[in-house]
Amino acid sequence: DIQMTQSPSTLSASVGDRVTITCRASQNINTWLAWYQQKTGKAPTLLIYRTSSLESGVPSRFSGSGSGTEFTLTISSLQPEDFATYYCQQYESHSSFGQGTKLEMK
Amino acid sequence: VQLVASGGGSVKPGGSLRLSCVASGFTFRDYHMTWFRQAPGKGLEWISHINAGGRPQFYAESVKGRFTISRDNSKDSVFLQMDSLRLEDSAMYFCVRLVGRNLFDFWGQGTQVIVSS
After folding, report:
1. Cα dist. A23→A27, B35, B53, B90 in Å?
2. Do residue A100 and residue B43 have CB atoms under 8 angstroms apart?
3. CA–CA separation, B61 and B30 (whole Å)
């Protein structure tokens, strides 16, 4: 099974900050990586698929990059509604998720 | 697109529940469907998958032999029959649409299951 590891587990930031979350795969997943956002008490929503493709309706301040085993999610200028937990998911071989990164207000 | 899950509740260990999820806003019969769960403060756990036509079905080891996924394409619905429930099955259960290669593009709002003595 492919293991996904996110860092950091918790990230404290302020509105307007540029933030980056990293996701590492235990083996090569090419670009079969997605990012999800989950706000407290809500269902996850798909943000990015195939490493860097934004789902319809996702603001352009979100971006994704990487390939192989290392990937990043970047929010260029943090907005109040972005405070949430973010999960990466590989779908190169079946599916597995990272443990999540909680983005909290500093 | 909407996925409305229901059927959760509180049950004793060893009991059963049947979750339902009604879809709207898309051609349900064209999509594979899955169930995920999330225990309080924990991450996302895939538990079951059913193909668009009803077969095949797949299960996580943690629920294999106890849970059964099914669907009724005439009613745009997917179900999860949960038997022999354990304390560790307590979680929010989400029905989720699958697209392409194991990409989960739409998640329902979830239904809460509490297993407690």
Report:
1. 12, 24, 34, 28
2. yes
3. 27
**Regions of chain B where pLDDT drops below 50:** none
Please state, in angstroms and rounded to a whole number, the distance separating the CA atoms of residues A56 and B101.
18
Q: How many C-beta atoms lie closer than 10 Å to residue A13's C-beta?
A: 16
Residue with the two structure tokens 């004793």: B12
Q: Are B44 and A43 an interchain contact pair (Cβ–Cβ within 8 Å)? A: no
Instruction: Provide the b/e sequence for B71-93 (b: ≥16 CB within 10 Å).
Output: bebeebbbbbebeebeeebbbbb
β-sheet bridge partners, residue A71: A23, A66
Check CB contact under 8 Å for A97 and B108. no
- pLDDT tens string B94-105: 999 999 889 999
Report whether A51 contacts A66 (CB < 8 A).
yes
Among chain A residues, the shortest Cα distance to B109 is held by A43
Q: Which residues of A touch B8 (CB under 8 A)?
A: none
- Distance in angstroms (rounded) separating the CA atoms of residues B6 and B26: 19
Q: Whole-angstrom distance between the N-terminal and C-terminal Cα of chain A?
A: 36
